[in-house]
Here is the input.
Amino acid sequence: MYDYDLVVVGSANADLVIGVERRPAAGETVLGSDLAVHPGGKGANQAVAAARLGARTALVARVGEDPHGRLLLDSLSSAGVDTSAVAAGRAPTGVALITVDPSGDNSIVVSPGANGRLTPGDARAAERVLRSAPVVSAQLEIPLETVTEAVRLLAPGTRFVLNPSPPRELPAELLEACDPLIVNEHEARVIAGDGTLGDGPEEWARALLALGPRSVVVTLGAGGAVTAEADGGVTRVPSVTVDAVDTTGAGDAFTAALAWRLGLGESLPVAAGYAARVGAAAVTREGAQASYPTAEEVAAL
Ligand code: ADP
Here is the structure.
């Protein structure tokens, strides 16, 4: 009935990573390792994670007409993501300039580039794709008005999943569309605005639910997650114990897996349990997209 299992609206970035002994202070120059270039951006990460699991996935995004844009299109295509709604041009591909020191601490400068030029008009141009899946997911590395326009274009009954990252206060129209709103602790605090979240993740989830979303998921890293639904109560979702190597992109894999499983008809706690296994698998390997598991690898956890 649907062309896709999941449509993702969001960002695509080239991550430019240099290892350094010490991150530079103002005015300082330091020598670092060879440059590593990885495909990234929360939208592209979510799309690749879902496709790797076997979901028929399309991405609505914008890249530049440049080598970084081609790198991203190649990595999306080789994961099996439909890129027919990835527009090109208007600005260079978004990049994240990342320096990492030996302790793993990093400093990051993001140039949104083409992601910042993904307009409400681009969302309207992708209307057919946005109406071709039971679930549409988004994040906030693209203009807020584009995310809002995508929500307005959804077919009745299409489920909307939002990870508001990087976080900002959300208009009521967007909050009320989320089913679920997926946040970590930091995002929960920014969305709640005034710090009245209460003690512990169950309380945070209830407080966020009171702001209007149809459901809420709070992710807790190695602590798993908590789900909350207006009529279904609050559920603690255990994590899977693994040797964590690199948590980059775990939240994106979690969101993608959750959105996909909801579209298959699973309940929110069951889908979150599956997503927790996908997130756990993703932290056992280096990188973001390179760390994402197949369905067979998730089953073997
Ligand atoms: P974010 O990257 O958005 O802050 P989290 O770090 O909470 O998101 O990770 C998302 C999900 O991935 C978690 O809810 C959990 O299920 C899984 N996960 C993350 N880190 C670990 C870990 N160290 N061990 C097991 N599971 C993890």
In short: The longest helix spans residues 268-283. The longest strand covers residues 13-19.
